[in-house]
């Protein structure tokens, strides 16, 4: 893997999540953070969609230091709207699978191919970088897909995006597909994966392994239906597991995730990789004791909470052991004896067994009930 660029589509595909809408101000704020973090491409939206969308895409393009992309169907008004918005990259697409051509586009293969070539030619005529996507590529007849790739390549497209539009690819099959596409074109390869079977991030990584230079991702994985490959998962896998320097400031990932959670209205599951509340949390006594001694014992090691701007937590509950309780008591400014720790641990377990959350307020109450003395050193930072 020699190159691994990140194309963020939170503001476009992410906003297509059911019941999600970003305001103009939301888009500007999110784009500014993505820009500051060093994201390589920001797909700011679909300029032809509305006047407000056009203005947001235009203004984000003017304000950003990274490449800003606008989406366009292979129709003249879409292409012209994207060009008028001044984007650095026009991303144009057309369905290529028979099911979408017949029952959605109501077009023939030849019509799809002709419109794809004409759209790429128009973008290149304007002197703008072009990306072309054969929508639903993973369900497209392979011979026709090759025809399309050859056609848009001859027309001069800079990028070919291979989208797993309906999330049906597996990592092995996707690898083979990207490898085949790479052999058919001189254009750079980009991939776009969906999470219908929970494989979006794995498929994106597989795309890189097969020769793709870039993957499209969204923060928290939001997007159509089950969502997209997650920005945070793909970036951290590249950085931590593949030793690829993406150039992205990963220490702001948790901050970015929280902003998208708030503005999209889509809650981040506690067990969400990298950014979920449980990603660096430990309750089990054995795990917590190991982590207190050396965090690598029960965490990846190659990815730490500090790397993504998060904090490790020792959670109190029915599985908590004495090591965690002692650590939390000392952090809270107490100086417990072994007997104090045993008794507080017993109370924590009993309280947690009733499916109640053991907060610092409860821990303090348990400590005060049995007379745990305060430490002369006070609360530990």
Automatic annotation (TrEMBL):
The keyword Amino-acid biosynthesis applies. Keywords: Amino-acid biosynthesis, Branched-chain amino acid biosynthesis, Leucine biosynthesis, Transferase. Pathway: Amino-acid biosynthesis; L-leucine biosynthesis; L-leucine from 3-methyl-2-oxobutanoate: step 1/4. CDD domains: DRE_TIM_IPMS (cd07940). GO terms for biological process: coenzyme B biosynthetic process; L-leucine biosynthetic process. Residues 1-22 are annotated as: Disordered. InterPro entries: 2-IPM_HCS-like (IPR050073), AIPM/Hcit_synth_CS (IPR002034), Aldolase_TIM (IPR013785), LeuA/HCS_post-cat (IPR054691), PYR_CT (IPR000891). Its EC number is 2.3.3.13. Residues 4-254 form the Pyruvate carboxyltransferase domain. SUPFAM superfamilies: Aldolase. The keyword Transferase applies. One of its GO terms (molecular function) is 2-isopropylmalate synthase activity. Catalyzes the condensation of the acetyl group of acetyl-CoA with 3-methyl-2-oxobutanoate (2-oxoisovalerate) to form 3-carboxy-3-hydroxy-4-methylpentanoate (2-isopropylmalate). Belongs to the alpha-IPM synthase/homocitrate synthase family. PANTHER family: 2-ISOPROPYLMALATE SYNTHASE 1, CHLOROPLASTIC-RELATED, HOMOCITRATE SYNTHASE-RELATED. This is Probable 2-isopropylmalate synthase. It comes from Halomicrobium mukohataei. The lineage of its organism: Archaea, Methanobacteriati, Methanobacteriota, Stenosarchaea group, Halobacteria.
């Amino acid at each position: 893997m020699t190159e691994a660029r990140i194309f963020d589509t939170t503001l476009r595909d992410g906003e297509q999540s059911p019941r999600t809408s970003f305001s103009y101000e939301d888009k500007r704020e999110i784009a500014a953070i993505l820009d500051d973090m060093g994201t390589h491409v920001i797909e700011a939206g679909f300029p032809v969609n509305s006047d407000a969308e056009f203005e947001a895409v235009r203004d984000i393009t003017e304000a950003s230091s990274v490449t800003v992309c606008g989406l366009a169907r292979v129709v003249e008004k879409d292409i012209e709207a994207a060009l008028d918005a001044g984007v650095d990259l026009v991303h144009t697409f057309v369905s290529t699978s028979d099911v979408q051509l017949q029952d959605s586009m109501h077009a023939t293969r030849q019509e799809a191919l002709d419109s794809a070539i004409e759209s790429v030619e128009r973008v290149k005529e304007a002197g703008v970088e072009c990306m072309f996507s054969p929508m639903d590529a993973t369900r497209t007849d392979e011979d026709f897909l090759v025809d399309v790739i050859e056609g848009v390549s001859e027309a001069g497209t800079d990028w070919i995006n291979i989208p797993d539009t309906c999330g049906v690819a597996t990592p092995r099959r996707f690898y083979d597909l990207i490898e085949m596409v790479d052999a058919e074109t001189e254009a750079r390869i980009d991939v776009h994966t969906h999470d219908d079977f929970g494989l979006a991030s794995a498929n994106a990584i597989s795309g890189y392994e097969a020769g793709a230079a870039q993957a499209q991702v969204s923060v928290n994985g939001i997007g159509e239906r089950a969502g997209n490959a997650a920005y945070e998962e793909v970036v951290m896998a590249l950085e931590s597991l593949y030793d690829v320097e993406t150039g992205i400031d990963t220490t702001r990932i948790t901050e970015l995730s929280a902003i998208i959670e708030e503005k999209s209205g889509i809650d981040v599951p506690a067990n969400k990789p990298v950014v979920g509340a449980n990603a660096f949390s430990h309750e089990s006594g054995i795990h917590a004791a190991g982590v207190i001694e050396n965090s690598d014992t029960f965490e990846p090691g190659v990815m730490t909470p500090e790397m993504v701007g998060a904090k490790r937590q020792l959670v109190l509950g029915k599985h908590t052991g004495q090591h965690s309780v002692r650590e939390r008591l000392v952090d809270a400014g107490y100086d417990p004896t072994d007997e104090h720790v045993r008794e507080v641990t017993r109370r924590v377990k009993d309280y947690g067994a009733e499916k109640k959350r053991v907060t610092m307020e409860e821990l303090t109450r348990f400590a005060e009930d049995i007379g745990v003395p305060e430490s002369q050193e006070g609360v530990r930072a």
